[in-house]
Amino acid sequence: MLEVFGAGFGRTGTLSLKTALEQLGFGRCHHMLDVFEDPESIAVWQAAARGETVDWAQVYRGYRSSVDWPGAAFWRQITAQFPKAKVILGKRDPEAWYASAESSIHAAAVAPLPDDANPVFVQVRQMALDVVWNGVFDGRFTDKRHALKVFERHLTEVEQAFDPERLLVFEVTQGWEPLCEFVGVPVPDEPFPRTNDQASFAEHIAHRRSVGSRVDPTG
Questions:
Q1: The domain that contains 17 carries what CATH number?
Q2: 219 lies in a domain?
Q3: What gap in Å lies between CA 106 and CA 98, rounded to an integer?
Q4: Each residue's pLDDT expressed in tens, for the chain with a length of 219 residues
Q5: What's phi and psi for 65, nearest 5 deg?
C-alpha cells in the first residue's frame, strides 16, 4: 500500500527522490524506470490515459511509494485511492524545468528510433507519449508558453487539493531535513542522493534503446 506519493512532474528531481525514499525505508518506490521492468503494466497506464477505470491498488501492489510519471499524471485518482498516503509535490524553477525536460525526456520521446530498437523501449515510449506528451501536455509540449502554463497550473492545483499536514512542497536542493520531518524518520548520516543529471540520463537512454542493451534499474 502506498504511504508516500510524489505528484511532481518528471525532471523535478524525481529519481533523486525515489532513491531518497528507498533509503528512508519507503521502498519499493515506483518510477518510470519500473515500467521497463514490468512491461505488462504498460497496458494499464494506457488504459488510464484513455480514461478507463484502473485498480490502483493492483498497480501499486508491492510498492510503498511512487514518484515521477506515469503516476504523477493521475495524481487525483491515485491519492483518492490511497487517502492516507502523504503527498510530495516536487517543485523546480519553471524555466529550468522546461529546459531540462525538453532536452532529455521529451527529446527521447520524439527522437527517431534505431532499426534495432528494443521492443520494450518502444512500448514504454509510446505509453509516455499517450500519458504525458499527448495527455498532460495536449501534444503541445514544444509550445513553451503552453507547457509552462501546464506545469504551473499543476503546481497550483496540487497545492490547493491537500491540507498542509498531508502535503510537502519540496525541492531536492533542500536535502534531507524537510523530507525526513514530513515522513517522520531520522535524518540519515549521509549525503542526500543526487541522480539522473543530463549526462547520466543520456547514458541511461542509450542503454535501453537498442535490443540487447543493458537494463539499469538505478537510472
A1: 3.40.50.300
A2: no
A3: 10
A4: 999 999 999 999 999 999 999 999 999 999 999 999 999 999 999 999 999 999 999 999 999 999 999 999 999 999 999 999 999 999 999 999 999 999 999 999 999 988 889 999 999 999 999 999 999 999 999 999 999 999 999 999 999 999 999 999 999 999 999 999 999 999 999 999 987 555 555 555 555 555 544 333 323
A5: -155, 165
Query: Which amino acid is residue 215, in one-letter code?
Result: V
Q: Considering the domain boundaries, does residue 85 fall inside one?
A: yes
Residue 216 maps to a domain: no
Number of domains in the chain: 1
- Residue of 23, 22, 53, 113 whose CA lies nearest to 31: 22
Please state, in angstroms and rounded to a whole number, the distance separating the CA atoms of residues 20 and 88.
Answer: 12
Q: What is the pTM of this model?
A: 0.90
- Domain hosting 155: range is 4-209
